[in-house]
Amino acid sequence: MKDIPLHEMSPDDWDEMNFPRPDVQGFDEVVEEAISRRGFMGGVLAFGSGAAVMGTAMLKGTTAMAGQSDRFAFAQVPIQTDSTVHVPEGYNWDVLVRWGDPLFSDAPAFDPANGVPSAGSDRVFGENTDGMELFNIGSGRELIAVNSEYANRKENLPNNEDGTPASAEDVVLLQQLQGVTVMEVAEGPDGWEVVVDSPYNRRIHHNTPMVIDGPAAGHDLMKTEADPTGTASLGTMNNCGAGRTPWGTYLTCEENFNGYFGATEGLPTDDVLAAGYTRYGVNEDGWGYDYHKWDARFDVSKNPNEPHRVGYIVEIDPADPDSTPVKHTALGRFKHENAAYALAPDGRVVIYMGDDERGEFMYKWLSRDKYVPGGDTSTLLSEGQLSVAKFNTDMSGEWVALTPAATDMTEAEIAMFSRMAASKVGATTMDRPEWVAVNPRAVEGYCCLTNNKNRGVKPNAGGDDTSPNGPNPREANKFGQIVRWRPSGDNHASNTFEWDLYVMAGNPKTQEGPYAGSANVNEGNMFNSPDGMVFDSTGIVWIQTDGDDSNEDEFEGMGNNQMLAGDPVTGEIRRFLTGPVGSEVTGLTWSSDKRTMFVGIQHPDAPFPDGEGSLPRSSIVVVKRDDGALIG
Ligand code: FEO
Ligand code: CA
Ligand code: CA
Ligand code: CA
After folding, report:
1. pLDDT tier at 69 (50, 70, 90 boundaries)?
2. Helix 46-55 crosses helix 26-36 at what angle (to 10 degrees)?
3. Is 434 in the pocket of ligand 1 (CB under 6 A)?
4. DSSP-assigned beta bridge partners for residue 399
5. I need a labelling partner for 509 at 20 to 30 A (CA). Which of 89, 401, 405, 519 fits?
6. Cα 537 to Cα 630: distance, rounded to the nearest angstrom
7. Which of the residue ranges 1-5, 197-201, 613-617 would you say has the lowest mean pLDDT?
8. CA of 27 relative to ligand 3 center, distance in Å
9. How far does the centroid of ligand 4 lie from the alpha carbon of residue 602, in Å?
10. Residue 39 pLDDT
11. For the CA of 257, the nearest ligand
12. What is the CB-side half-sphere exposure of residue 300 using CA atoms within 13 A?
């Protein structure tokens, strides 16, 4: 500690003097461990080199590529700060569908200044596109199931102050523009288009009937006046990332559901309810949607259990437009980002999942029953074991089963309050787990840890310590990283694994030490806040960002949010696409013939894609190679 006169001390100095850090910080131990071991990439270790940059100055300034890949068939796109999409030379892009485009010929027209009217807002493509999957249902028909994560209130209600709903009708507009769209798509002479009036087109939104199954179904805390059985709810909400099952269903993931609820007459005081609200962030005012003032279902003064009925993985059969979506409580309740499946050698289904909040956890679920192609899959996601990740500094880790014995909670309580169960077993607090992806060419999983300004600064909402730890080594983490694990015995059902960091994002131009990033980050490919992540069929990992696109200060040289391709073997990362200013690039899928890539552009700031005079419109774009060759 420097000798600083008291009157010149900053709050940080004062804190340091009164609460000195231990000589050996958790991070230094991690560095030592990491250097003494080899990461998965061999030679230049993704984790080891990054750690060395941070911890020892030994490799300070190392920004060389981890390795050059010959697997990328494109030249890197430079950063951009403009209002459109850029792809590499030899590729082209076009718009498939925009917020407000018709799914049915009776849909209301989109007004460039006012958006979509409330009546008929369930007949158009929803707002703020996010996770998506394409399904080939035979006879040459292809369906895309895609999330609409949230509604931009100011754009949807431009005549209301701050976009605040002023009527039940306004609330219905917002409710119907979110959720999920299922739509048939086809490639014609003018490129890819939505097949308007296809019998498969469907909107699933905040008022669509759902079935609740699994351990929490029927529990007293799941019952409401409208549903005294606790097995049938309305609506899926804040559908963020996505996933699919091997049997052709879509998994939509409920993330920041808490923001839709509020209380007109105070929050309930019951201890169990209050503890759950605190951990999941349900409060009196909500996030400005004001549903609770117009729709009693969202008023926790009147319907205190309603928030327990969201925060799940929801299974939708896109090929059956009359099917009722199923909320699978077995897979836990938290702010679900996405769901990535793997099959264990014995046929059991593994689903990896992240809980996107600062200092929350990474989860794995293992089905009780085995998947048999062509067999009955209707209850495969109904019974199984939820586990949570614990990372050790020696680069080993385990999935700790959330059982009644380990948590002193019932199975139903573990399903409804999974965060509390995970805290009880000492799970590793993470830097906001966003998308998880499973490599189809190697037995390994990846998770984007997008950023975490609270790392080492304050505990999570459950009071768990968030000191820097193995996969989350940087205090007040601004840039994010991607953790990777390899299950023991090459078996995704195994409860132990080894891990490393695939990349630590950073800025080698303006930052030193930890924030310069790992060896596979350089001034050419740098980015921040990895979020979306999907493997293509060839084993390339596609990384999408949702970060600071100011292109200033510590983010100088990173430009707009983007999509990059990563080689899991060499570690090379190359920028493939840049989004319009203000947007997040999120959601990725491919046509069955792998000649088209569908990419989501969420919440652009500029009037993308229609140009001046129009509201900005979240959109799905199609990307192809000029020569029509495979693209994934
Ligand atoms: Fe909806 Fe965590 O992104
Ligand atoms: Ca996300
Ligand atoms: Ca994000
Ligand atoms: Ca988003």
Report:
1. low
2. 140
3. yes
4. 389
5. 89
6. 11
7. 1-5
8. 25
9. 7
10. 62
11. 1
12. 28
CA of 419 to the centre of ligand 4 (A): 22
360 lines ligand 1 (CB under 6 A): no
- Is the shortest distance between the CB of 498 and ligand 1 below 6 Å? no
| Ligand 1 neighbour 254 (Cβ under 6 A) | no
| Range scoring the smallest mean pLDDT among 20-24, 172-176, 181-185, 352-356 | 20-24
Cβ 447 under 6 angstroms from ligand 1:
no
pLDDT band at 22 (very low <50, low <70, confident <90, very high): very low
Cα(337) to centroid(ligand 1), Å: 6
Question: 255 CB less than 6 Å from ligand 1?
Answer: yes
Q: Where are the domains of the chain?
A: 6-625
Which pLDDT tens digit goes with each residue over 396-446?
999 999 999 999 999 999 999 999 999 999 999 999 999 999 999 999 999
Instruction: Give the model's confidence band at 315: pLDDT under 50 very low, under 70 low, under 90 confident, else very high.
Output: very high
Mean pLDDT of 368-372: 98
DSSP string covering 119-132, please?
TTTTSB--SSEEEE
Among the listed residues 437, 525, 447, the one whose alpha carbon sits nearest the alpha carbon of residue 480: 447
Number of the ligand 1 atom closest to the C-alpha atom of 256: 1
For residue 503, report the distance from its CA to the centre of ligand 4, in Å: 22
Q: Ligand 3 centre from 188 Cα, in Å? A: 34
> Is residue 239 within 8 Å of 148, Cβ to Cβ?
yes
Residues 6+ apart with CB under 8 A from 511: 517, 554
Closest to 478 measured CA to CA, from 526, 437, 446:
526
Q: Is the CB of 416 under 6 A from ligand 1?
A: no
Average pLDDT over residues 584-609: 98
**pTM, to two decimals:** 0.92
Report how far ligand 2's centroid is from the alpha carbon of 240 (Å).
6
Cβ–ligand 1 contact at 337 (below 6 Å): yes
Average pLDDT over residues 504-515: 95
Q: Whose CA is nearest to atom 1 of ligand 1?
A: 240
pLDDT at 125 over 80: yes
- 31 vs 303 pLDDT, higher one: 303
**Given the structure tokens 């529990």, which residue do they identify?**
219
Atom of ligand 1 nearest to the CA of 240: 1
Ligand nearest to the CA of 529: 3
Q: What is the pLDDT of residue 454?
A: 98
Span from the CA of 452 to the centroid of ligand 1 (angstroms): 13
Q: What 3-state class would DSSP assign to 298?
A: helix
- The Cα 206–Cα 236 span in angstroms is 5
Length reported for the chain: 632
Does residue 381 have a pLDDT over 80? yes
Q: Is residue 149 lining ligand 1, measured as CB closer than 6 Å?
A: yes
DSSP-derived secondary structure for 353-417:
EEE-SBT--EEEEEEEEEP-TTS--TTTTTSEEEEEEEE-TTSEEEEEE--HHHHSS-HHHHHHS
Contact of 391 with 471, CB cutoff 8 Å: yes
Helix (H, G, I), strand (E, B) or coil at 531: strand
Of 583, 594, 589, 577, nearest to 88 (Cα)? 577
**What CATH fold (topology level) applies to the domain 6-625?**
Neuraminidase (2.120.10)
> In the prediction, which pLDDT does 56 show?
29
